[in-house]
Amino acid sequence: AMALSFLMYPVLRGLALQVHSAVTGSYISGTHSVAFINCINEQIAKDIARAIMDKKLAACVNILPKTSTLYFWKGEIEESTEILLLVKTRTSKISELSSYVRSIHPFEIPEIISLPIDQGNPLYFKWLEESMARD
């Protein structure tokens, strides 16, 4: 019984936070995330952004123009320009987003990282929810 209680705690806590959020209208920190995805050029960035949106894996994707990038690749320092996607999504979709992007991205090892959103405009978070299909 004790082990079951420990295993159920995260689920019960999550449900309690969702109920609290629904009743009070407050935002639950970490419900949404921003994912960063690098792309080799603007066309690939637009194609990946459109594919993400078509699959309803995000509510919004910003395409940031040319960034200068230095990185290690196979023991050497490389330098290139890349396009950065900022993907606003539900944290629960990050795993699916990452898998999907890896399946369509031309890089051998694409950058796909995410950070949870701690705070922000409650109306924006409401819009994010309305813009994405339910899990």
UniProtKB/TrEMBL annotation:
Keywords, A to Z, come to: Signal
Report any one BP term from Gene Ontology: response to metal ion
Residues annotated as signal peptide: 1-16
Q: Does the keyword Signal apply?
A: yes
Q: Which family does it belong to?
A: Belongs to the CutA family.
Q: Which GO terms describe its molecular function?
A: copper ion binding
Q: What is this protein called?
A: CUTA protein
- The protein's assembly and partners: Homotrimer.
